[in-house]
Write a structure and sequence with these properties.
This protein is α+β, with helices and mostly antiparallel strands. The protein contains 4 helices and 8 strands, in the order H-H-E-E-E-E-E-E-H-H-E-E. Residues 130-140 have low confidence and may be disordered.
């Protein structure tokens, strides 16, 4: 009988120790990155991590700067922004002592990232002498 009581207590208490966003969304969000033309180098927060097309798991709790570059094209910057996710925010209202808010917004699961899919069209370079590293963060 004690074993059943302990199992029931764990089932009832465990959700209160985690946030609804953690249970529903997890701490990471997969975002595909595409470019036209494909084969562009992907740099995220100053680190080159691959070429398009590709998909990466991003921690939900922060905003990311994505730079795409390809020879013969202007370097282009895009943002993947964090936003508060309304569903875990509302569902956490029922959690005692608001533990869920602390869990979800500390580990990032209370946020969503936008856009869900990053599609970038690279513009042909207007300066044939400048290399892609000299083009700057913002296209002309």
């Amino acid at each position: 009988m004690t074993g059943r009581f302990l199992a029931l207590a764990i089932v009832l208490v465990a959700p209160a120790l985690t946030g609804c966003g953690t249970l529903l969304n997890g701490r990471y969000q997969n975002i595909p990155i595409y470019s036209t033309p494909s084969g562009a180098e992907i740099e995220i927060d100053g680190r080159v991590i691959g070429t398009t097309p590709a998909a990466f798991n991003f921690r939900r709790g922060r905003t990311y700067i994505v730079v795409l570059r390809k020879d013969g094209y202007e370097q282009t910057m895009a943002l993947i922004r964090r936003r508060v996710d309304a569903l875990p925010f509302v569902l956490n209202l029922g959690v005692p002592f608001y533990i869920g808010y602390g869990v979800d917004f500390t580990n990032g699961a209370g946020f969503m990232l936008r856009p869900r899919r990053l599609d970038v069209t690279l513009l042909p370079s207007t300066n044939t002498e400048a290399s892609s590293s000299e083009a700057g963060l913002f296209p002309r």
